[in-house]
Write a structure and sequence with these properties.
Helix content is 37%, strand content 20%. With 153 residues, the chain is α+β, with helices and mostly antiparallel strands. The chain folds into 2 domains: 41 residues, Winged helix-like DNA-binding domain superfamily/Winged helix DNA-binding domain (Arc Repressor Mutant, subunit A), CATH 1.10.10; 82 residues, 2-Layer Sandwich (Alpha-Beta Plaits). Strand 2 and strand 3 form a beta hairpin. Helix 2 packs across helix 3. The protein is elongated, with a radius of gyration of 20 Å. It starts with 5 loop residues before the first helix and ends in a 13-residue tail after the last strand.
Amino acid sequence: MDALDSHDIAILAALQRDGKMSLQDLAREVNLSTSPCWRRVRKLEENGTIAQYTAILDARKIGLNTQAYIHISLLDHTQTTIDAFDAFVAREEQIVECASITGSDDYLLKIVAKDPEDLETFLMKGILSLGIVRSSTTHFVLRQKKQSTFLPL
């Protein structure tokens, strides 16, 4: 991948703030004419630097009032178990983040739910019913202090 220059960084910063910005507004903000700006954006999309565009929703306004982080430890680390867990994570929309982690647990999940009872149902009838989880530890989010999708440039 080519190194990012100051124009690329400015484009990425502007699109992180407003991914819906028009090409003309973007070009004006980063001090480029429209055609070179468009070529740079297209290159950043094609090389995967810009992975996707999306809308960021307020979870509470769509009825998802509960968030939790769940530490998961699997029964074993066979490929079959890992594949089964990965497939479960991929198909469950309530899991909004999943990371394989170091330490005594194997995964850290971020879950959204309507309420604590909905989270309990997801945990009991979803995660634990897989039969491949040794233990889970749930940490409810009381208040979100910072939430950002911005990456430092």
